[in-house]
Specification:
Layout: E1 2-11, E2 16-25, E3 28-33, E4 42-45, E5 50-53, E6 55-60, H1 73-82, E7 85-90, H2 101-111, E8 117-122, H3 136-139, E9 154-155, H4 165-177, E10 181-184, H5 189-192, H6 201-206, H7 214-230, E11 234-236, H8 242-253, E12 258-262, H9 264-268, H10 290-301, E13 307-308, H11 336-345, H12 352-366, E14 382-392, E15 411-421, E16 424-428
Parallel strand pairs: 1-4, 1-5, 6-7, 7-8, 8-9, 9-10, 10-11, 11-12, 12-13
Antiparallel strand pairs: 1-2, 2-3, 5-14, 14-15, 15-16
Helix pairs in contact: 4-7, 7-8, 8-10
């Protein structure tokens, strides 16, 4: 039994916004009240801390199986817990690709030892080759895993787009029938054409091939058109351009069933970071212009953008050593809440209820997972943080195996102090 004393509960789902005590027993919240007097094994003084329902990250590359020198499910869970994240969706671009029951069983078995809740996605197409659809019906049903395993709750070829429009449309229909969320990696590879940063003034200055923003915008338009014409749902991953934000905004106003996410680096950093010739500022989609950053922030503020995810993409120091040859991707699990607080909350762009909506509620809603809140009877998945504590990002101290953070050396304001999953304290600062 755990008693959290004097925490400021900020949870618009339960309707609580103020200092409360929280009693946890047998993995569940049993009471939320002004003053709770109870003999408990653990009493935690949470004065000055904010308590929100556990954060859920719906876009994480755990690199497991196949690339565990970069990350594995257990270290990924450790990093997530350190960032206040109580659950995440792992992407399927592993080796082998998550496109079959055996790999899903492997993930489920390993996830039993993880500190946070891990949910798998599966590929849209076999081997992520863009040709033959995976068997969504098979991979989405728990009864098809009698010997252990967990069904996939979403489908995505993230890391690669589905090039063929007819294949993507069929995926939307079949995923809907299987009760799965379709997540689209919006990139036209013919336009991207091997570029690795935003096509613009910085790429010209550096003399490198850039990725034109049309690469993202064209496929965002395609997914919206398919969702509208087929009357199906689609979720657009890692929105980074002004035009993509505008397209999603207009589609929502027209009644299209489209949702989208962005990542902290797209509302915090610009392409100017690439002038350092540091590959830790390379990701896909790439950092864009200040105009794009402002548009992403505007999309967050007016609820065009539904959630904040990390697109956590670990790579080794050796892989990131060469600016031009390095793979794209940055880690983000241990900085996502702090970056959101620093660049959005403390700048008065969003409120605490907005953070709960963007990082706790909407990701679960989009994935059709159970809604959680800080209320009696709810699972005790809670994130506690000090919104005003300043700290300098030191990747060498991260729980993640990889250190490729684009926030390294920066001072952020807001720090996770405790992460509770299923009634257990899985992280303490």
């Amino acid at each position: 039994m755990i008693l959290l004393k004097n925490a400021h509960v900020a949870d618009y789902i339960s309707g609580i916004d103020g200092e409360k005590d929280i009693l946890i027993d047998n993995g569940k919240i049993t009471a939320v009240s002004d003053k709770i007097e109870k003999n408990c094994e653990t009493v935690m003084d949470c004065t000055g801390l904010i308590a929100i329902p556990g954060i859920f990250d719906m876009h994480v590359h755990a690199r497991d199986p196949g690339q565990t020198h970069k990350e594995d499910l257990l270290t990924c869970a450790e990093a997530a817990a350190a960032g206040g994240i109580t659950g995440f969706l792992c992407m399927p671009n592993t080796e082998p690709v998550i496109d079959n029951a055996e790999t899903l069983k492997y993930i489920a078995e390993k996830a039993k030892s993880a500190k946070v809740k891990i949910y798998p996605s599966c590929a849209i197409t076999k081997g992520q080759e863009g040709k033959e659809l995976c068997d969504f019906e098979l991979l989405s049903k728990a009864e098809n895993f009698p010997s252990g395993g967990s069904p996939a709750i979403a489908v995505t070829d993230d890391g690669r787009p589905v090039r063929n429009s007819a294949t993507m449309g069929e995926a939307m229909i079949k995923a809907s029938m299987a009760g799965m969320t379709v997540i689209s990696h919006c990139e036209d590879l013919d336009i991207a054409c091997g570029g690795f940063m935003n096509a613009g003034k910085v790429s010209i200055m550096l003399g490198v091939r850039g990725i034109h923003r049309a690469s993202e915008n064209i496929i965002t338009s395609r997914e919206i058109d398919l969702a509208r014409d087929l009357c199906e749902k689609v979720h657009v991953a890692h929105v980074s351009t002004k035009e993509s934000v505008e397209k999603v905004r207009a589609a929502k106003a027209a009644g299209v069933q489209v949702t989208c996410e962005t990542a902290p680096h797209y509302f915090a950093l610009t392409e100017d970071m690439l002038l350092t010739l540091d590959a830790d500022y390379r990701m896909n989609p790439p950092l864009r212009t200040q105009e794009d950053v402002d548009a992403v922030i505007g999309g967050i503020m007016d609820k065009t953008i539904d959630c904040i995810a990390t697109d956590h993409a670990p790579h080794s120091l050796q892989e990131k050593a060469d600016f031009r040859a390095a793979p794209n991707g940055v880690i983000g699990l241990e900085t996502s809440l702090a970056a959101t607080l620093t660049f959005l909350y403390h700048t008065e762009k969003i409120s605490l209820p907005d953070i709960v909506r963007l990082m706790c509620v909407n990701p679960r809603k989009i994935l059709s997972l159970r809604e959680i809140s800080i209320a009696p009877g709810q699972p005790a998945d809670i994130t506690l943080f000090n919104p005003n504590e300043e700290w300098t990002v030191e990747p060498d101290k991260f729980k993640s195996k990889s250190k490729n953070s684009c926030f390294k050396g920066m001072k952020l304001k807001g720090r996770v102090k405790y992460t509770i999953v299923g009634g257990e304290v899985v992280y303490e600062d």
